[in-house]
Design goal:
heterodimer; A: 6-stranded antiparallel sheet; 5-stranded parallel sheet; 5 helices; about 20% helix; disordered N terminus; B: 6-stranded mixed sheet; 11 strands; about 5% helix
Chain lengths: ~250, ~200
């Protein structure tokens, strides 16, 4: 697998906001042109740093939602957190042309490329879909037919990030399978389920796959990741093939 | 550079000196892990001290809990940029583990190993002198699985990925051998005060 990236130093650098796209009521995509463009792999993240006039700094990690094939500009899908410090800046202050600092790519474990093989099961909760859409976009850009199933959980259909794009991939019928669940809509035409991820749902999606997944990637809050990972283990998926990314603060 | 329009929050002045560069204070206790949370039963738990491949001594859960207990309260710092102050822990100091085993550390380096296959490297001098423990209690309660229970390494003066969750042994190594995250772009030592987050920092 894509383990053990070469030891290179990721320096802080300036990046310019080139485009801002609202995705959902709480999530906005920021497109950033790094002053020193870098190669990255789907699933990696960047650290972002903001500096106040008196030298005070705040930094956060954001998964890259774009895929390297899209070019030098990277996309970060940033959720407005209640009481957020950095996310408040992005949502309320940042405009096109602004410069921020970032460094990357970071992370050598939560990575998938088509060379790593398939089938792959992706499980995302809320904004945890960001590193997973990078993998899905990468697969499409590579014109790969690798079987991938994305199980994506959001609160409501309004909060599904990249919804139209995912539906488009899903309708292309080339091995990408999308399963949606909405946890705060009592019933929905748009989703397969209307409940939190549970063992029965995990058994269903495993049965939809052409064969047992080679790797599973789970990203979301800690509670979400634990629920999905415990259900996977309950369904006899080996712990060693389950990679997790938990959104901390 | 200054970010246009960013003012940010300041840390309260009385704790400012306790927050390393680039870190933000949190009152929560975020959970991070590369894989599923293993549920290790205490009856299946053991802790082995090894010199290279050679086991030196092994304790089961009951035996380990009979070792001298120490409480300490420390500030902790995660590489994902949160810091948490005054976290109260209880467990067995690494000094006491070595004393009970009747050994002097045979090498200068160690790898901590975990039930889920995780490993992380820590120099022996960072484990001794009252600096580190195998923690089994947090805030007066048995350590939960999310936070590494039944037992985790606690090396609070280094970034928290060094404090291996679900620990099952310490292995002396002749060289400073990189562990799981150290092989995947993270710093070999991980001092938060020198902001050693990633390779080359």
């Amino acid at each position: 697998m894509s383990d053990q990236i070469p030891a290179t130093k990721a320096e802080w650098q300036r990046a310019t906001i080139t485009e801002i796209v609202r995705q959902t009521p709480r999530v906005v995509s920021f497109f950033l042109q790094p002053s020193q463009p870098f190669a990255y792999r789907p699933g990696q993240h960047v650290d972002v740093r903001l500096s106040a006039p008196d030298g005070y700094q705040a930094q956060r990690s954001y998964s890259i939602a774009s895929t390297p094939e899209q070019g030098e500009i990277i996309e970060l899908a940033i959720e407005r957190l209640e009481d957020g410090e950095v996310s408040a800046f992005f949502h309320e202050v940042a405009t096109i042309g602004d410069e921020i600092e970032l460094r990357g790519p970071i992370g050598g474990h939560f990575i998938w490329t088509v060379e790593d093989g398939a089938p792959i099961l992706l499980i995302g909760g809320g904004s945890g879909v960001a590193p997973l859409i990078s993998m899905v976009r990468h697969r499409a850009a590579q014109q790969s037919l690798a079987p991938i199933l994305l199980l994506y959980s959001a609160r409501t259909s309004d909060e599904l990030i990249f919804h139209d794009e995912l539906q488009m991939f899903n309708q292309s019928g080339n091995g990408f399978d999308l399963v949606l669940t909405l946890t705060r809509e009592p019933s929905s035409q748009e989703s397969d389920y209307t409940r939190r991820i549970d063992p029965a749902m995990i058994l269903d999606v495993l049965a939809r796959m052409p064969s047992q997944p080679k790797e599973v990637f789970v990203c979301g809050s800690n509670a979400f990741v634990n629920a999905a990972a415990d259900a996977l283990i309950g369904a006899d998926v080996p712990a060693a093939i389950i990679r997790t990314e938990r959104y901390g603060v | 550079m200054t970010t246009r329009g960013f003012t940010g929050r300041r840390q309260p002045p009385e704790i400012k000196d306790r927050i390393p560069p680039g870190q933000t204070l949190t009152d929560d206790f975020p959970v991070l892990s590369a894989g599923p949370t293993p549920r290790v039963r205490t009856e299946d738990w053991s802790f082995t001290l090894k010199d290279g491949p050679k086991p030196l001594i092994k304790w089961n859960w009951v035996e380990f809990n009979a070792l001298p207990q120490t409480k300490f309260t420390r500030d902790i710092h995660c590489v994902t940029a949160w810091s948490k102050l005054d976290t109260p822990w209880q467990g067995v100091l690494i000094d006491d583990i070595f004393a009970e085993a009747g050994i002097e550390p045979p090498t200068e380096f160690a790898l901590a190993h975990s039930f889920d296959g995780y490993a992380t490297n820590v120099p022996v001098k960072d484990l001794t002198g009252g600096k580190a423990m195998i923690a089994t209690f947090y805030n007066g309660q048995p350590l939960t699985a999310d936070h590494g229970g039944p037992a985790r390494l606690l090396v609070p003066h280094l970034y928290f990925w060094k404090s291996a969750k679900w620990i099952n042994g310490l292995q002396f190594t002749t060289r400073d051998e990189p562990g799981f995250w150290e092989l995947r772009g993270y710093h070999i030592y991980g001092d938060p005060w020198r902001e050693q987050r990633y390779t080359g920092d």
